[in-house]
Structures are given as structure tokens and as C-alpha cells.
Design brief:
By secondary structure, the protein is α/β, with parallel strands linked by helices. It is 40% helix and 22% strand. The protein has two domains: 113 residues, ATPase, nucleotide binding domain (Nucleotidyltransferase, domain 5, 2-Layer Sandwich), CATH 3.30.420.40; 144 residues, ATPase, nucleotide binding domain (Nucleotidyltransferase, domain 5). It has a five-stranded mixed beta sheet. Strands 8-7-6-9-10 form a five-stranded mixed beta sheet, sandwiched between helices. Helix 4 packs across helix 6. Bound molecules: adenosine-5'-diphosphate (ADP).
């Protein structure tokens, strides 16, 4: 049986998922550079290798993410808002609110019981409150972004980060370092500041459980805890949360493959 491919080309990373009869059978995650056409091709190749398949096994490809129109082998392009909603509903069927924090934007998406988008709000005007903000601040602390979440969980005296602009936040981080503040306390302050910004966005669409956190920043445990604390609600997160857009795209493709409506 042919597979449905979901390909999410984001600002930092290409995510590819292979779906067969509602089951994820292969996936890949690789950085996006200047040549998106080549990166998309590589993402597909890696996901096919992961599933021990080849291009002849592909039945339908759906693209999403900001680079979706550059996927030359794609048959359909769908917005990441719809795809994150579909993906989150697939993994957590009781989801009513999705918060997607990626490399360059943050989205709040209200979904109904069928995983359809009811309302959404987006911050894509600046990097504040996005993965980019954390990447820059991690860099200012000399840390890898994968390490900042676990480290922040050790914080006992979080600092207050007041800068909302990424550039100013970077200087604020440097200033806290020179004043002898511990990295974990600076990181906890940064996470709290993003959680605050996300909360305002979520309030615009209405907060209703269950809440599912998607996008690469959901891999950051410190951010998951900060968001959950600020919301006063548990937050669903899956090890596949960064793939949520690609999963949603593959689900749309699987419906097309089997002749259903999408
Ligand atoms: P995009 O779709 O725009 O490429 P993603 O949803 O893939 O964005 O998220 C990318 C962001 O995820 C990065 O900017 C980074 O901050 C964060 N991220 C990626 N991997 C990890 C990790 N292992 N731990 C913590 N954060 C991560």
C-alpha cells in the first residue's frame, strides 16, 4: 500500500512524516538552508530510508510550512495552522487549543471536536517569544538550545526578564551574567517571559482544555512547565510534537489517497 507523505518546511527545520493506514512508519528532521528544494528532497529521502521504502512507495505528498510552495514533488499545499490542528487532534483527540511555538512565529489555534480550525491568532511580526528568541539567548549563555530547558528546571531564584525584543533580551542576558546570576535563573526568567507572551495570544482565541503544545519549542521541558504554570492547566506534549504540522499534512494526504474529502 502506498504511503502519504507530510512535509513541513519551516524557518529552521524540515520535518517529514510517512503515514500508512493511520500509522507513522517513517520520519526525518533536518535543518533548512538556502536551498529549500534540495532540503525538501533530502527530508523525503531520509524519511524513506527510515521506513526502508523508496520513492515508488509514495502515493501522495502534502506540503506545509512557509516553504511549502517550494516542494517540487508535492501535490497539495496546506497552511500550517490547519496541519497543526489536524496533527494535534490526531495525537490528542480532546484538544481544543493548540499552541505552536516554532523558529520564527507563535500561533494559538482553537479547534473543534473534529480537529478543524475555529479561530487562530499569530505572532509573526518579530522573533520575540519564538524559538529564535531562545536560540539567541542560549547562544548568549554559551549553551546549546537542547540543554536550556532541563537546566532551567533547577532554578530557585528566577530573574525577571523585561525586554520583549530579542536584541534587547540578549543584552539583558549578558547583563545578568555579568551581575553573577546563575544561568538556570536567567533561563527560567526567559521561559516565563515567553509563557507570558504566549498567554496573551492564547487569550485572544479563548483558553479551553485540552491544550496541546506543538512546534520545536515544545521539546524544551522548561518551556512546557512555564506554559503550563502560566495557564494553570496541564499541557499535552508528545515526543512527536515538532512533527505535528507534518503529521497533519500527511493525514490530509492520506484522505486524498483513499478518495476521501480533506
Ligand atoms: P520551524 O518550523 O520554524 O523550522 P520548529 O517548529 O521546527 O520551527 O522549531 C524550531 C525551534 O525549536 C528552534 O528555534 C529551537 O528553539 C527549538 N528546538 C529545536 N530542537 C530543540 C530541542 N532539542 N530542545 C529544545 N528546543 C528545541
Amino acid at each position: 500500500m502506498k504511503v502519504a507523505v507530510g512535509m513541513d518546511i519551516g524557518s529552521t527545520t524540515a520535518k517529514c512524516v510517512l503515514l500508512r493506514e493511520g500509522e507513522i512508519i517513517g520520519r526525518s528532521l533536518n535543518p533548512v538552508g538556502v536551498d529549500i528544494v534540495r532540503d525538501a528532497d533530502r527530508a523525503l529521502q531520509l524519511a524513506l530510508q527510515d521506513a526502508h521504502l523508496d520513492r515508488g512507495d509514495v502515493g501522495f505528498t502534502t506540503g506545509t510550512g512557509y516553504g511549502r510552495f517550494k516542494i517540487q514533488f508535492g501535490q497539495l499545499a496546506v497552511t500550517e495552522i490547519s496541519c497543526h490542528a489536524r496533527g494535534a487532534h490526531f495525537l490528542f483527540p480532546k484538544t481544543r487549543l493548540v499552541v505552536d511555538i516554532g523558529g520564527q512565529d507563535t500561533k494559538a489555534i482553537r479547534v473543534n471536536e473534529r480537529g478543524e480550525v475555529v479561530d487562530f491568532a499569530m505572532n509573526d511580526k518579530c522573533a520575540a517569544g519564538t524559538g529564535r528568541f531562545l536560540d539567541v539567548c542560549a547562544g548568549a549563555l554559551g549553551l546549546d538550545v537542547a540543554d536550556i530547558g532541563p537546566l532551567s528546571l533547577n532554578s530557585r531564584h528566577p530573574v525577571r526578564v523585561t525586554s520583549t525584543c530579542t536584541v534587547f533580551a540578549e543584552s539583558e542576558v549578558t547583563s545578568y551574567v555579568s551581575r553573577g546570576k546563575e544561568p538556570q535563573d536567567i533561563l527560567a526568567g526567559l521561559h516565563a517571559s515567553i509563557a507570558n507572551r504566549s498567554l496573551s495570544l492564547l487569550q485572544r482565541v479563548g483558553i479551553e482544555p485540552e491544550v496541546t503544545f506543538t512546534g520545536g519549542v515544545s521539546r524544551n521541558e522548561g518551556m512546557v512547565r512555564a506554559l503550563s504554570q502560566r495557564l494553570g492547566l496541564p499541557v499535552n506534549v508528545s515526543p512527536l510534537s515538532q512533527y505535528m504540522g507534518a503529521i497533519g499534512a500527511a493525514l490530509v494526504g492520506e484522505e486524498r489517497l483513499h478518495g476521501g474529502a480533506s
